[in-house]
Amino acid sequence: MESGDYVLEARKVTKSxxxxxxxxxxxxxxxxxVQRGEILAIxxxxxxxxxxxxxxxxxxxxxxxxxxxxxxxxLATLSDDERTLMRRRRIxxxxxxxxxxxxxxxxxxxxxxxxLDGVPPATAxxxxxxxxxxxxxGPRRHHxxxxxxxxxxxxxxxxxxxxxxxxxxxxxxxxxxxxxxTGQRLTALLRELVDTRxxxxxxxxxxxxxxxxxxxxxxxxxxxxxxxxTRQRTGSPAAPRNT
Length: 243
What we know:
Elements: E1 6-17, E2 24-35, E3 39-44, H1 50-57, E4 65-70, E5 73-74, H2 80-90, E6 91-94, H3 106-116, H4 121-134, H5 150-162, E7 168-172, H6 180-197, E8 201-204, H7 208-211, E9 216-221, E10 224-230, E11 241-242
Helix pairs in contact: 3-4, 3-5, 4-5, 5-6
């Protein structure tokens, strides 16, 4: 597959911390590509490099060596301000903690990224209301986070990530603070976004039932890709292959 077919691509990415004897290699030569309209799940034990890799893919940090390409732009070559702008406009983030501002309504929380980017408040609120309908939170858009359940708050967080119409949505343990039934509903929502809107999603999870909804699963061990599974759309896994 040509590089131009990927929304996101990592090429021989490494990340080290510290120097000398204290040097730690958290990511060791990762190669992967993510197509438009695909869910890629990243799994691995604690310390395998999952979270470090996600910060590199999202442009929060830059690799020690290698390239991270988002829509063919190398994030490592951008200035801090340019990377901040790229994250604001092209990458949506969903975390285990919902990170909603408690004094703002659901609609105001979702509209905030647009307003910070200079979109007029009325336009931002209209777009926020529309995307809240998409995640089945329209009737609750005027509620404060404290009046919403955990699952509802996470749906608002997903709406906030989607309102910028991102090329890439990154999710770090998005069901970690939810009970199993609520987590399954959220995972089904992410799958629906891919199937109906061709959204591209990379998620880190420790939960196999969440990973089952992905098109591919990458298993990390000691900072490297140890194994990759390509899954059928029906949810039945193809034979895993070693990398």
